[in-house]
């Protein structure tokens, strides 16, 4: 059995997220189905850096799986993609040390949340951003986000999930940028709580539209209470961009 | 009755082209339906700069329509878009002189054909380009395209269409560019024959992959015979970019 590492993109629009759920189309199940058809093995389990939720996109998801397949290496990438639908693409495949575990070994993940705040959203981008009908003050959002950087208890920014040992995480990079009518929020951390980026986005959007003062983020962090934070921004604006390993 | 000019985008993926056809979802019918629901008028006919075919996209289509509607002007753009599905967006609406006719008055139209020639096409762009499994020589395509510039009989580059008076057209701009694994062919002309851009794209792709010599374009033009040219490239790579008026 060899251990394979893959980097992949998917358009999350028509997936009920990463993780296999009976009766739903998921990325994990689709990948596992493609790999078992390709290899003839009875069961291949694909282990991602982390689950993404229904509707969330990825341009640099990382996963690994074990297989005894004998497909010649130069044909492997094409063969995997030939078994996948058009909304998942594997960009690279490599054999890696047997110990590599895409989930456990991930040091940091970078997510990007994309907002459009113009009048008419392009029909080509509508599934890949959140449309704010109100103009947002991106500079205020960037200033307001500062207190989130570093190590904090992000309990106010998670949708509760049972059995989570700790809600302390470290944000290593956080930036809010605007180009034209698009704003994107980049958040890189050593780990993410359930809905954490979308709650940060919803909170910063409340600040960007002047509904809350910039100081609100510090108060929300301190409260350690989800009801203090802004709404969970819609999934379609969220992209998993990159996963960093040692 | 006032005459309104609109500029619109649409994702052509789920439309059977511009022109109304019974039993099919078309851009024209969708727009006309939205405008009659908005205005309460019994029939509004939307007249585009030109038809686009099934699956062809537009980022700068222009059309006009006559209406006696009394929607306040500052609300009009939002009101039109509120009646449209997500794959059509009207970017601007203005009242224009009664004589303006988006089709008859168009001086030039610019189309772009987008090709991806890398290994793995992004799931976000798969519907918006033609995927060439072979690497293409874009510089050879650019050189080969030179003889198409200016006024010619483009009969070899049209899918025959009855009652077409003349197949002489003038290409005012033609460029082939590459950025990374994307190649795009821009063609601006005073008018286009049926499938003309897609036939130019299919011909240049045959040259780009070394199947034909660069000199082939001159021979094809001279032949005035469609069977000499390359295949009609798929609709999903084609965008109507801009329409120019006096």
Describe the structure.
Two copies of one chain form a homodimer. Chain A has 246 residues and is of the alpha+beta class. Chain A folds into two domains: 2-96, Alpha-Beta Plaits (2-Layer Sandwich); 108-244, Pseudouridine synthase I, catalytic domain, C-terminal subdomain (Alpha-Beta Plaits), CATH 3.30.70. The first copy, chain A, is 21% helix and 30% strand. In chain A, a hairpin with a 2-residue loop joins strand 8 and strand 9 (182-189). The mean pLDDT of chain A is 95. The A-B interface holds A 9-11, 57, 59, 77-78, 81, 86-91, 119-124, 126, 128 and B 9-11, 57, 59, 77-78, 81, 86-91, 119-124, 126, 128.
Summarize, please:
The structure is a homodimer of 246-residue chains. With 246 residues, chain A is of the alpha+beta class.
Task: Supply the CATH superfamily name of the largest domain in chain A.
Answer: Pseudouridine synthase I, catalytic domain, C-terminal subdomain
Largest sheet of chain A: 10 strands, mixed
What's the overall geometry of chain A? globular
Strand content of chain A: 25-35%
Report the C-alpha radius of gyration of chain A, rounded.
Answer: 19 Å
Q: How many individual helices of chain A?
A: 5
Low-confidence stretches of chain A: none
Structural class of chain A: alpha+beta
Tally of structural domains of chain A: 2
Q: Would you count the extended β strands of chain A for me?
A: 10
CATH topology of the largest domain in chain A: Alpha-Beta Plaits
Distance between the termini of chain A: 23 Å
